[in-house]
């Protein structure tokens, strides 16, 4: 499954956040056979639709989609030179599908900031610079080889051109993600450049920041079009120790109406380019994870590979139509249930029953 790698400067709250991420029981409850690595935190994707579906179908249980975060050993300036943990750090990032950078915006004289002051844009630049330098090394090694290949193999020429373009952009201090409309990243896929990965930014904030709309807007704009999530990592960790009522009070005291882990899960899911569709029955109401743009047979394949191979058609109703009708039968007689074929592109929140040959 796809993962987000958590990175950030030392002392920004990564471990605090990661501990909160790992202390939930979603896996134990719903995925008894999943092996969890110690450096992986799996969070449920909050989805209010599941509870409503479970009502309509009298489902015994709810199974949400999940998002996986991998804790990546701390980045330090000089990581790209292979200093200390540098090499391992870069290898771990290469395996992640997206990068989740934690940035400190909380004030606390007791917690030392590595660069001496809270400065989000400088933190972002520090991480970007290390990743850019690592990508430049990759390109400097690859370009002579691609050049040789391009002399005899015409089909390597577009790749050579893209590699040279990428090098120029990185040299100018831009990430491949920032320049994604200018270079065809597909041509460079085999190089697995780090800065191609989509970014998500988590601002570890305190109440003063969380309740300051102007400041939040400024931070959102700093990282746009990437997603920004605002939370207080220390509070997130405390929430898990509290009953529902006290948790709500604690959240309200810092001006929040839901745990930050919820918005983090949603943003992580979005950054990975994923969406969900739903199935429902007496046994369970469940959200399934598919890439945005997945077709009906691909969606069926997530349940079982046989479903993809033997796909005949999908019976689809939108969540809104289904809950408005009150039952599958009522939705059918209201003409809200569609038969979709193998070219159908799934929409988020489709409630589906697949027909297939085995
Ligand atoms: P890491 O080095 O990025 O993994 O950072 P840690 O999670 O170890 O946090 C460093 C220090 O900052 C610890 O003493 C944490 O208790 C503290 N800390 C983490 N998050 C917050 C926060 O949101 N507010 C405050 N005041 N302190 C925090």
TrEMBL record:
Domain of life of the source: Bacteria
Name of the protein this chain belongs to: Ribosome-binding ATPase YchF
Lineage: Bacteria, Bacillati, Actinomycetota, Actinomycetes, Pseudonocardiales
Binding residues for ATP: 11-16
Domain named TGS: residues: 273-356
OBG-type G domain: residues covered: 2-259
TM helices/strands, residue ranges: none
Entry's Gene Ontology molecular function annotations: ATP binding; ATP hydrolysis activity; GTP binding; metal ion binding; ribosomal large subunit binding
Role, per record: ATPase that binds to both the 70S ribosome and the 50S ribosomal subunit in a nucleotide-independent manner.
Claim: Nucleotide-binding is one of the keywords in the record: yes
Gene Ontology CC terms, in alphabetical order: cytoplasm
Alphabetic keyword roster: ATP-binding, Magnesium, Metal-binding, Nucleotide-binding
Matching Pfam families: MMR_HSR1, YchF-GTPase_C
Family recorded in the similarity comment: Belongs to the TRAFAC class OBG-HflX-like GTPase superfamily. OBG GTPase family. YchF/OLA1 subfamily.
PROSITE patterns named in the record: G_OBG, TGS
Cofactor(s) annotated in UniProt: Mg(2+)
Organism: Solihabitans fulvus
